[in-house]
Amino acid sequence: MKPAWDKLGDEYADSSSVLIGDVDCTNVANIEMCGKLEIESYPTIKYWMDGNVKDYKSGRDYATMKEFVEVVLQKPCDVVTLENCNDKETGYVKKMKSKSAAEREAQLVRLFGMKDNDMKGELKTWLVQRTFLLTAMKEKKDEL
After folding, report:
1. CA separation, residue 136 to residues 72, 92, 113, 133 (Å)
2. DSSP per residue, 11-76
């Protein structure tokens, strides 16, 4: 399963709405978190929807996991209509719409430069979301 999981993670590395990650629950540093998530066997797959943790109970092969992500989890923010955007994304898109294309490009370059830095998962997710949003704004600049 690990190769399929890593391949899925690589594919969604730049997604604004999907974060594929893993935690080693045999590592002492992660025991508290794994206990809170009620992880009792390995590997265990969990996912979050609307802030609620759920157990993944489908196949462990790449094709099945990818289909699950596409059908259930992937709902990118539309920078033109703001459909599927959460409050944070909406605020960011509105803020960046007031900037020039050059300012947005500079921000995108800055964020891409930070992409490989070590940071907490939540910060990493927000960084990836912003790069996605700015890239989408660049691609749809005539519609903004």
Report:
1. 21, 13, 18, 5
2. HTTT-SS-------TTSGGGHHHHHHTT--SSS--EEEETTEEEE--S--SHHHHHHHIIIII---
Residue 7's Cβ-count burial label (10 Å; 0-12, 13-18, 19+) is middle
Q: What is the pLDDT of residues 100-140, one digit of tens each?
A: 999 999 999 999 999 888 888 778 878 888 998 999 999 99
Tell me which residue of 89, 22, 19, 25 sits closest to 49, measured CA to CA.
19
- Count of CA atoms in the C-beta half-sphere (13 A) of 134: 23
Interval 31-88: pLDDT, tens: 999 999 999 888 999 998 777 899 999 999 999 999 999 888 888 889 999 998 889 9
What are the distances in angstroms from CA 116 to CA 11, 29, 101, 127?
Answer: 16, 22, 24, 10
Is residue 16 within 8 Å of residue 128, measured between CB atoms? Answer: yes
DSSP 117: S
- Distance between CA atoms of residues 94 and 139, nearest Å: 16
